[in-house]
Amino acid sequence: MDVSSEILFTIAAVLLLIVCSAFFSGSETALTATSRAKIHALEQDGDDRAALVNRLLEAPDRIIGTVLLGNNLVNILASALMTSAMIALFGDVGVFYATIVLTIIVVLFAEVLPKTYAMAFPERISLFVAKPMRFLIVLLHPATALVNFIISNILRLTPTKRDDQANILAAHEELRGAIDLHHKEGAVVKGDRDMLGGILDLRELQVSDIMVHRTKMLMIDIDDPPASIVDDVMKSQHTRLPVWQDEPENIIGILHAKDLLRALARVDWDASQIDFAGQLGAPWFVPETTPVKAQLNQFLRRKAQLALVVDEYGEVQGLMTLEDILEEIVGQITDEHDIADAAIRPQPNGTVNIDGSAPIRDINRHLDWDLPDEEATTIAGLVIHEAQTIPEPGQTFTFYGYRFEVLRKSRNKLIALRVQKLEEATTANAPAT
Question: pLDDT tens across 313-325, in order?
Answer without folding.
Answer: 889 999 999 888 8
